[in-house]
Amino acid sequence: MPRLRTVLLVAGTALVARRAMRRRIQASPLWPMPALDEPISGRPRARALRLLLTRHETVADGVAQLRLEGQALPAWEPGAHLDLVLPSGLIRQYSLCGDPEDTSSYTVATRLVEDGRGGSREVHEQLQEGMEIEVRGPRNRFPLAPDAPSYVFVAGGIGITPILPMLRALDARGADWHLLYGGRTRASMPFLEEVEKLGGERGRVTVVAEDADGRPDLAGLFADRAPGTAVYCCGPEGLMEAVAAALPGHCELHLERFAPHTSADGNGPFEVELRRSGRTVAVPAGTSVLAAVRAEVPSVSYSCEQGFCGTCQQRVLEGEIDHRDELLTDSERDDSMLICVSRARGERLVLDL
Ligand code: FES
Fold it and tell me: Domain 2Fe-2S ferredoxin-type spans what residues (predicted)?
């Protein structure tokens, strides 16, 4: 009998312990989700490479150019960008502005943003020649249309970086192109000499330095353009909005943003139900869904926090989405969102998380 009592006691204790453990697991923010080493969307992360920083030089006021060397580097096409994983862990995207034929190095350039979020300052002040830098990509969300009848480019300051390889490629094949390149001063505009040389005597390049020339004449730039002209613009948000407003209906606009598109309205609070984990989080005004969700689910996947990489894509089960990214396709927008930038149109969203 004492032996039977002991067996029953051990079995009962094990059962209680098992139930307690199960309750703790179910209360965990990870239950019943799998570990989130990979994005829940299944969107693959770009391959990572470690490259040697062999050149870090100033090429215009406040603009640093970096040369990163490796071997047999993945190919890229004009318009592509790299993710740089900075020593602090910040990830920033920079357009490739070197030669796509060069498979031993990548070249990027970045402007120091005094009141930015720290990425450009780290590039300018912490990175040094001889350091190894992790990069991911290249990826291209700003590709050059192969067969437009003519091309018009509008670059604002550092926005020249994705456009420069496009100009070289178009010039090499004798395509019809024109560039309007604007900046605060000539000294602040990187690659100005090369750009003017590319334009040559043919009047293909119009340089507008604001301190000397004032505002660019966009209406004049678009006057008499042929139907189907491909217009590429990269620069500050205000410039891109002005180009979109001045664009004739028969031209095709392509935009490259260095910062997430922001909406003046619709930044108010709402709540997000995480259906699989059985929780609801409040998203205050001015806080991203990602930040609110991370407080409950620290392992949720994310990377750029700017709506560029797609790592934070989540399926949406209910609610109307206010999409604020430039990445997702129309069909992806039907039932998913990038939670680092996009918000709810109403008071509530339900995520499959
Ligand atoms: S974290 Fe990169 S798109 Fe959201």
Answer: 270-353
